[in-house]
Amino acid sequence: HLTLRINEKQKILEAGDVTKRLEYLCQILAKEMEVLELERKINIRVRKQMEKTQKEYYLREQMKAIQKELGDKDERAAEVEELKNNIEKAKLPKEAHEKAYKELERLEKMPPMVAEAVVVRNYLDWILSLPWSIETR
Fold it and tell me: Among 7, 23, 107, 126, which residue's beta carbon has the most beta carbons within 10 A?
């Protein structure tokens, strides 16, 4: 079953010669085949990406479980702990301290591979790199 627009149906019906009707119909079918082929390629690409993402997630979870069994602290927890210690050592003003902890809590809840996690991490690094306790005259 082929869904045609009204103007396409009209053009087929208006063609007096059967050969012209078939030629026009062949053109329409060729375009439809191109669209279907493109959709198929996109679906394959999306499916492969989803499979890759699912595989990475599964392997990451396995790695976490193994590290937990071995008693190792996972990298993410170690990173968060290090940032927490650096925030305490930085002698931040109250507002900056509260904001840094809020961002650290956000970072802790985010999956590690999310782009926003990198932004939050860079923001915290930037806050911690500022000379909060140094005064100039």
Answer: 107
